[in-house]
Design brief:
The complex is a heterodimer of chains A (248) and B (118).
Chain A lengths: L6 H9 L4 H24 L4 H12 L2 H9 L7 H4 L1 H34 L5 H36 L4 H16 L1 E7 L4 E7 L7 H44 L1
Antiparallel strand pairs in A: 1-2
Chain B lengths: L13 H12 L2 E2 H11 L11 H10 L3 E8 L2 E8 L1 H34 L1
Antiparallel strand pairs in B: 1-3, 2-3
Helix pairs in contact in B: 1-4
The chains are: A mainly alpha (248), B alpha+beta (118).
Chain lengths: 248, 118
């Protein structure tokens, strides 16, 4: 894979903490400008190759183009400016919000059911318990995993150091793993309960289950990190080869 | 790869002033802005052309410019225009620039007179 003309600049800006949206826009406009300059040079008689070299010179070298962006701290992403807050408070807030949202939806559905099915049969009650159990698994199992992976993707996109990405993954996985939403139905009335292995009285079954879930979600999110870094390294190798090629 | 010769020390605030002045007349995209600066200043002001974009983005973030994407000949270009706040900023920048140039000119004139007297 050959890198395009601005891949090195893009990497430089991302590694310096510039928000990806600013980098994307800057590179996009530079590319358009480069195309316009090439057309202008070709129109004035230069060959395509010479026109491209001239256009790149006129645009400015990578260090000049990077310096003008790096001199503006307001273009740095929130994650680059406050990594501790983003990768600890962010996952915690999102996991708690996912659990709260899961509970709110359930309670809302329970409130609505009597209006549509005033006297549910045993089979209908069984089906409800099954659906709610799946929903609870999504809220306490899948959502924290998705949040952990989300922070992994954000961290990789913004070229954050691995330690911050793993802080994010761990925060989401630990908090998510030790919570449990449970719905039981004895045939007469249902009971919705929320338990935590991280709060007194520290129920042993939630702690054991939490460790197991933490291992599973943590491993899955770490695997996502591994695949992400691998893909990124392949891109970087191509860029490095491009730099060597250009130097030759 | 060598970069074009620039004059960065005296350029602080100047690209901003020139950009606002040009965009006050009509909306333009980056390449047009740079070409207009070169034409208007007869190549006296020489910038690495790509340097104009962070200035444009900063002005937009400050509310002095607004941008819109416009398809032209099968390509989408980002056009910039000055806002009301940008016009006010331009007026302030022009006043500031006039004061600076007047002061510098006066200093040069006084130095010349002093040299002649000596």
């Amino acid at each position: 894979m050959q890198p395009s003309g601005f891949d090195i600049l893009r990497e430089q800006l991302l590694r310096a903490g510039i928000a990806p949206r600013h980098v994307r826009r800057y590179i996009g406009e530079l590319r358009d400008h480069f195309d316009d300059l090439v057309r202008e040079e070709v129109a004035s008689g230069a060959s395509q190759r010479v026109a491209e070299i001239q256009a790149r010179k006129r645009l400015g070298n990578d260090s000049d183009l990077a310096a003008v962006v790096l001199s503006r701290p307001d273009l740095r992403s929130l994650t680059a400016r406050h990594p501790l807050a983003v990768f600890t408070l962010g996952p915690v807030a999102m996991v708690l919000a996912a659990i709260a949202l899961g509970l709110a939806v359930e309670i809302g559905v329970f409130e609505l059911i009597p209006a549509f099915v005033p006297h549910p049969s045993a089979a209908q009650r069984g089906a409800l318990v099954f659906v709610v159990a799946i929903w609870n698994l999504i809220a306490t199992y899948a959502a924290p995993l998705a949040i952990a992976m989300g922070f992994c993707v954000v961290g990789l996109r913004q070229r954050m150091p691995a330690k911050w990405i793993f802080v994010g993954i761990a925060s989401a996985c630990v908090l998510g793993a030790f919570q449990e939403i449970n719905f039981s139905d004895d045939g007469h009335h249902g009971e919705l309960s929320l338990g935590s292995g991280l709060m007194p009285p520290f129920p042993m079954h939630l702690i054991v289950q939490g460790f197991y879930r933490f291992m599973v979600t943590g491993l899955l999110a770490s695997a996502a990190y591994w695949f992400g870094t691998r893909a990124q390294k392949m891109g970087e190798t191509a860029i490095d080869q491009g730099v060597l090629h250009a130097a030759e | 790869m060598g970069s074009p010769k620039t004059n960065p020390n005296f350029m602080n605030g100047v690209p901003e002033l020139l950009i606002l002045r040009l965009l006050e007349e009509r909306e333009m995209y980056g390449y047009e802005i740079v070409a207009s600066i070169r034409a208007r200043t007869e190549d006296t002001i020489s910038l690495g052309e790509g340097v104009v974009y962070p200035v444009l983005h900063a002005l937009e973030r400050d509310g002095a410019l607004k941008s819109r994407r416009k398809p032209v000949n099968g390509r989408t270009r980002v056009y910039y225009t000055v806002t009301r706040s940008g016009e006010t900023r331009l007026a302030a920048l022009v006043r500031q620039w006039m004061q600076i140039t007047e002061s510098v000119n006066q200093a040069i004139r006084e130095t010349r007179h002093a040299t002649v007297r000596l």
